[in-house]
Structure formats: structure tokens, C-alpha cells
Amino acid sequence: MSSNGPAQKMTARASGPLKGRADVPGDKSISHRSLILGAMAVGETRIAGLLEGDDVLDTAKAMAAFGAEVEHHGPGEWSVRGVGVGGFGEPEQVIDCGNSGTGVRLIMGAMATSPITATFTGDASLRSRPMGRITDPLGLFGARAFGRDGGRLPMTIVGASDPVPVDYVTPMASAQVKSAVLLAGLNAPGQTVVTERVATRDHTERMLRGFGAEVETERTEDGHRIVLTGQPELKPQTITVPRDPSSAAFPVCAAIVVPGSDVLVPNIGLNPTRAGLFQTLQDMGADLTFENEREEGGEPVADLRARYSPDMKGIDVPPERAASMIDEYPILSVVASFAEGATVMAGVHELRVKESDRIDAMAVGLRACGVTVDETEDSFTVHGMGPGGVPGGALAEARLDHRIAMSFLICGMAANKPVTVDDAGPIATSFPIFEQLMRDLGAQLVRSNG
Ligand code: S3P
């Protein structure tokens, strides 16, 4: 079952060549943060290019439940009239964050230092994911959490009525944990400090500065420290959300593996904390170019052009690159299946606690497609079969995970036999126009039922 109804089986067959322009939707991470920071500012924030996927729409509803006025004006155009830092009201209903770890974890952070109580839940995927990584640091501010099964949703957070600032070292490379601490720190007096050993996506820091908060980032011997001065008045902003590099990854990788393809994916956000996949593809020999490189709204942006790349070689992906491409390993493992030689992805244990256990989901599905893979707790190796060498002909389980569903559909576009995913419904969480966009490029995608 998809999160929102009956399962939607979908099949991809040998396709192409894929040609044309792929206008992918707005960045999911920046869309969530635009709504949450807009709700914590005083006055009206205007947002253009918001991702209207289920995950972000759930965050929009949540912000309204905490008291912000959230309005939809047209495609991608939204406004949020915020209630100010510390101004959240107590929601009357359970907050349902659907499939979104980013939504629930950032919102928990944002409300944890206000004297209110809120109960959170989500779909079966989100209810299985660990929340202790968020509630541990929120406890240091004085918030209390009451969850199921040692820290899973449904979970009630009782916000701190007298919050204290926190100095926290994140135990895992996680932008969600870092962001939850920073958002909680907004309503604590004094300085809240987060230290991370590996740099994760820094949209929260950049956007907080844009909204007028004082945020300093210093490099230290073992990573870097982010220092936030609490209790600022956040000033409303006009935001244009860049297009999502994690969504761009799908048409880009499809073009790389489908013979004869040439696809332009314009206006992609290329923040260095997000762009690891594109470097990796180039290291493997992909014909990928960055055109028209520029800066928009404080983020680097370029048009990506990807062409069919029959000479891809497997590589060892450096583990220190993992944070900058964490959501892209599923689609990379598909590309790796069409390369010559082994691609070794190390330092990837965080993949086990995403919307699904992504190592296991890809391992099972790729094996069913005839690809040899090896896994350990922290690594994933794909033994590439070369262009035209992947048999396909499998039914892959999406496991309520949008990126797993899209990855296997791309696999089916270049494999010898069709690949079916049991449920393409979750794709709507991050890339609601995926099916139409890929068809417009020349992909053979058919719904098998429902
Ligand atoms: C996100 C952070 C990452 C990523 C997720 C979005 C964010 O999660 O996987 O899709 O917007 O902060 P982690 O923080 O768990 O690594």
C-alpha cells in the first residue's frame, strides 16, 4: 500500500533515447525549511517554487496547526504569516507528517522550546524510524518525549517551559539532527552550539542567516561548530526555492544509462553539501556537464546536461562524500549496475534508517534483476554488468520509499526486460510529476493497475 491509498504498480520497459528538457520540482529540504522558518518569523514570507509533494504539504498543514497562516496562491506560490520565535500555539490535532523524516524531526525541534504539547505520527515507514536521535538533544533543552517502542512515533513532545541553551555534538552525520537542535535553540536564551564531524547539508544555517538570525560557523580540528544566538526576531523573507538536485538525479542517471539519450535539467541547486552524486558520476566517466553556472538566492545553481555514457567504470566512492549524496545511493547503485567493474559504496550505514533500509531494498531488488551485489552493515558493492548487461525482468518492492521506486523504474528503462515496482505511490512525496516528466523525455512507463 502507498501512504495515501491502494498500491500503484508501475512498469518501466526498455526506453529511449531520452531527449529534451526536464524541469524537476523545487528542493524538498529547502521547501520544508521555508515553511517552518516562515512560521517562526514575524510577518509574511512569500515562497516561489515550493515543492508541492506530499511531504512538504504535510509540513504546510503542520505549520497551520501550530498557528501560522499558510496560503496557496498558485503553482509553487505560497505565503506564510508567521507567529514569531516562541509564538507557536498548541495544536488541537495529532500532527501527521506522513512519510517525512525531515518534516517531523525539524518540527519537533521548532516546537520543543515552547511551553506546548504536541503529538506526532506518520505512515508505516515513518513510524518505524528512530526519533531518539532528535529527542536526546531536545531533552537537553528541557523538553520531554513520550514515544512508542523506545523512541518511535506516535510520540508526544512536551516542550520546555524554561528552555536552556545546549552545546551538542551530533553522534551521526545528520542534517535533520543538526537542524532540530538549531530550530530548538531559536527559543532558548544565549548561545546554542552544534558540532558536527562531517559537514551535512547546510540549508538551515544559510536560511537562518537569511531570516536575520546570528549564526556563525567555525571549522574546528574535528569538524565544525555552528553557534546560534537564541531569541532573535526572524524577519519574513521572499524565497525562490532552487530545483532539487536529489530529484534531478533521476532524469540525469536515466540519460546516462539509456542508449542515445541527451537530457538538459535546468536550474539545479548545486550546494556543495548536496552535489556529491554528480562528482561521483563524473569520476565514473559519465558525460555530464554543468552549463550556465551561477548563484541564485545564496545557493550555487547550474543547468545539468547528461548524455548516454557507455564507458562508465565502477569506482570506490569515498566515504567522506557520503553526506553530500546520502539520498542518491539508490540511483547510483542502478547506474553502477550498467558500469564495468565494481562500485564500492562505503560509510553508508545511515541508509539503513531512511524511508526504508535502502541497502537491503536495493540489494534485494537488484539481485532480482540479475545483478550481483554485496553488503555489510556499512557498505554496499555493486558488480557492474556493463551497458546492455542488466537482465531486469523483476518485481521490486518500493517499501514506501520514493527513491527506491524511482530507482527501479530507471533500471527498467535500460535493462533487457521490464522492471515493475509494486507501488509507485510514494513517488508523490518528493517528485509528483516524475511519471509525466519521464514519459515526456521518452520513457516507457505503464501503470499495471489502479
Ligand atoms: C535531510 C537530511 C537527510 C536526508 C533527507 C533530508 C534534510 O537526512 O536524507 O532526505 O532536509 O535535512 P539525515 O539528516 O537523516 O541524514
What would CATH call the class of the largest domain?
Alpha Beta
Arithmetic mean pLDDT: 97
Distance between the termini: 11 Å
What are the low-pLDDT stretches, counting only 5+ consecutive residues below 50?
Answer: none
Bound molecules: shikimate-3-phosphate
Within the CATH hierarchy, at the fold level, what is the topology of the largest domain?
UDP-n-acetylglucosamine1-carboxyvinyl-transferase, Chain
Quantity of strands, as a count: 24
EC number: 2.5.1.19
Keywords: Amino-acid biosynthesis, Aromatic amino acid biosynthesis, Cytoplasm, Transferase
Organism: Aliiruegeria haliotis
Binding site for phosphoenolpyruvate: 28, 101, 129, 176, 358, 403
